[in-house]
Recover the amino acids of this structure.
């Protein structure tokens, strides 16, 4: 584990706060799923949410681009500010928000369309390309950022669902970055992938850090340690500890964090 | 890893504890027996089902194929000018003044001449000889003359329908014994029929008029066809398709993708499922009350029939559409929303195309169900209507009174003349061909457009 931690260079410069959450509460019907969560997500940083199953880390992640709106019984209280603007304000259209805050899901979910159409869909509906040539350019750029261009450039018309699991997930990442988001949310992006594909995606996440603020939910502590600069530990709906990844894994302040990291709870 | 072959040679095998694996214990035997019995029940159930199907199909085919054949008598009729056009100026209005009845002597003399030419010996009077022909023969002749007035004065060869008793005799349905109490045909006439058949001018042939022709009155079963009511069914299906598909799909998309989950939508949902199980005659009463008594739409019109069947088909379409929308994995919706698509874009760009095969299948099955429905048509007057004239144009197709295929079959089956019974079965064959075709199309569409993810 110590080896993993040295992989990512941990520069601790002060960066802009991209997302600031204050006293966020989430209820599923009568269940109080997220309690009083305060967290600051920095720009151009990978922030990892870790914690045992059912601790609310995915729920919180889905609050950040209002994907929870699709669940009828879900209710969110508190403020979540993106660049100082409350994303739960009445004036905010969640559709517009989601173009800024892209998302990659646990299971690779390419559309059952061609690889090209998968990536081109977002730019098309947002009108990012004036003509076919521009769209081609966006698709190529996105696929390159998704680190999958070389593998698929000769078969852009092939269905996206025909790729391997790891390729599908990188395609989904390419699709997410095609709309030029500012924040990229990843909900356990590697849990359905084999170790080699996982390594590729992790490498990609590290590259994405140069452009986007990345928030990743993961079950694997090693993964959090490998890819993130900041780590938040959730337990039973509470944000127990939030800080530099190195510090969380080597010198946690809270006894619950320590127990989880050493494998006593989870 | 140790090498297994080495080990097995060296160490002796342990004695199996608690009995050998080669012997089945009592519990396993009981379980296997129960499983075997269950499989047997299943095979028996399928066997019974198949047997029923075979019996049904054989029955329908044997009883119904007769309707596609009809007995005809070939005669050369001289279209005498002094009878048909006394003024001789070929004025169509004058020709029309000669009633159907006025054509009878022409046919009778043609038959008499034919008998004399063939040298057939018979004691029958010319009138009785003429009785073996269908009453439709005179009408056929009159229609021919009115549409071809230039043929008057010439001798034209015709193929006339013979009446249903003679046709039954040719098909083996009527025998000399069975007509003992029948006043409309005599043994002498049957002898005469035998002579004509031996001479080769009375024969059975395929009868396209059964498929394309119109219904006929009670006295002329030999002339009845299902064609006009087929058109009635067709126009009804247009109405059903045009209304039920958009309304049903829009309702299901709203309920499945947009509507909030609350008590109201729960009630709606339960009621849609209940509506699917409502007896179809209830929809007929509803149609009578709303479309005819309240909205004053014409009785017996395919438009009204189509509206009633739309009401009946909607629940089927909504249920199957919702099922196919539900079957689209939520990850696709997430994916679309995740790249910033609106809900409607997510539904129309991604969910609907994936659900389309299921929706199409449901719609076609709903249509097939509507096509075979009789009871609701009973109450809006489409059953019992004699569809004797094809509709005149498309608007008339929707608005003028007509029957429908199942209604026509029902109508024939309750008429007294046994010749109609055969036609009812023939109609069932045609209806079944339609239904099987529609279901096959549904299966093919589903196979072709079903996408995997």
């Amino acid at each position: 584990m110590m080896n993993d931690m040295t992989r990512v260079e941990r520069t601790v410069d002060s960066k802009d706060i991209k997302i600031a959450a204050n006293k966020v509460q989430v209820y599923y019907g009568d269940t109080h799923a997220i309690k009083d969560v305060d967290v600051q997500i920095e720009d151009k940083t990978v922030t990892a949410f870790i914690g045992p199953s059912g601790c609310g880390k995915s729920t919180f992640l889905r609050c950040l681009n209002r994907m929870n709106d699709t669940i009828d019984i879900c209710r969110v209280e508190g403020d979540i500010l993106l660049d100082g603007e409350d994303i739960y304000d009445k004036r905010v259209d969640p559709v517009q928000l989601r173009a800024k805050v892209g998302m990659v899901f646990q299971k690779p979910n390419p559309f059952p369309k061609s690889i090209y159409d998968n990536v081109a869909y977002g730019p098309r509906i947002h009108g990012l390309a004036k003509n076919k040539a521009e769209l081609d350019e966006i698709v190529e750029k996105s696929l390159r950022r998704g680190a999958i261009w070389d593998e698929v450039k000769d078969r852009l018309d092939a269905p996206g669902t025909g790729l391997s699991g790891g390729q599908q997930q990188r395609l989904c990442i390419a699709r997410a970055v095609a709309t030029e988001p500012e924040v990229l949310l990843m909900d356990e992006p590697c849990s359905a992938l084999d170790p080699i594909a996982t390594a590729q995606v992790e490498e990609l996440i590290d590259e994405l850090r140069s452009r986007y603020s990345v928030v990743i939910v993961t079950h694997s502590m090693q993964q959090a340690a490998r890819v993130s600069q900041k780590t938040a530990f959730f337990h039973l709906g509470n944000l127990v500890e939030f800080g530099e990844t190195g510090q969380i894994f080597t010198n946690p302040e809270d006894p619950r964090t320590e127990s989880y990291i050493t494998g006593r709870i989870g | 890893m140790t090498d297994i072959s080495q080990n097995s040679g060296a160490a002796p095998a342990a004695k199996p504890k608690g009995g050998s694996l080669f012997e089945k214990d009592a519990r396993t035997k009981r379980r296997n027996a129960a499983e075997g019995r269950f499989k047997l029940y299943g095979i028996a159930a399928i066997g019974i089902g198949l047997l029923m199907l075979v019996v049904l199909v054989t029955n329908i085919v044997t009883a119904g194929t007769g309707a596609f054949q009809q007995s005809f008598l070939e005669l050369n009729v001289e279209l005498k000018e002094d009878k048909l056009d006394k003024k001789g100026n070929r004025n169509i209005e004058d020709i029309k003044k000669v009633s159907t009845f006025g054509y009878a002597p022409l046919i009778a003399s043609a038959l008499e001449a034919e008998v004399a030419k063939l040298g057939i010996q018979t004691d029958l009077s010319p009138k009785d000889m003429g009785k073996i022909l269908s009453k439709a023969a005179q009408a056929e002749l009159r229609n021919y003359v009115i549409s071809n007035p230039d043929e008057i004065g010439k001798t034209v060869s015709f193929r006339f329908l013979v009446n249903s008793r003679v046709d039954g005799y040719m098909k083996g349905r009527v025998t000399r014994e069975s007509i003992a109490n029948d006043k409309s045909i005599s043994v002498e006439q049957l002898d005469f029929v035998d002579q004509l058949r031996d001479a080769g001018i009375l024969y059975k042939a395929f009868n396209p008029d059964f498929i394309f022709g119109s219904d006929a009155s009670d006295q002329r079963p030999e002339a009845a066809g299902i064609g006009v009511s087929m058109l009635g069914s067709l126009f009804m299906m247009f109405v059903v398709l045009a209304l039920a598909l958009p309304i049903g799909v829009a309702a299901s998309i709203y309920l499945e993708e947009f509507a909030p989950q609350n008590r109201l939508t729960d009630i709606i949902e339960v009621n849609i499922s209940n509506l699917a199980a409502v007896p179809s005659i209830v929809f007929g009463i509803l149609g009578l009350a709303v479309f005819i008594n309240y909205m004053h739409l014409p009785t017996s019109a395919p438009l009204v029939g189509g509206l009633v069947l739309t009401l009946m088909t909607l629940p089927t379409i909504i249920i199957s559409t919702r099922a196919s929308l539900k079957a689209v994995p939520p990850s696709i919706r997430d994916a679309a929303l995740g790249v910033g698509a609106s809900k409607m874009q997510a539904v129309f760009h991604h969910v609907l195309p994936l659900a389309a095969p299921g929706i199409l299948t449901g719609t076609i099955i709903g249509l097939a169900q509507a096509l075979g429905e009789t009871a609701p048509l009973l109450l809006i007057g489409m059953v019992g209507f004699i569809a004797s004239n094809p509709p005149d144009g498309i608007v008339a197709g929707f608005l003028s009174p007509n029957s429908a295929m199942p209604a026509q079959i029902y109508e024939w089956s309750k008429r007294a003349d046994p010749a109609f019974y055969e036609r009812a079965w023939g109609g069932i064959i045609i209806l079944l061909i339609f239904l099987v075709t529609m279901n096959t199309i549904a299966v093919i569409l589903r196979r072709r457009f079903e996408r995997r993810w």
Observations:
- The beta strands of chain A are 17-28, 31-42, 46-50, 74-82, 85-86, 101-104, 183-187, 213-217, 230-235, 238-244.
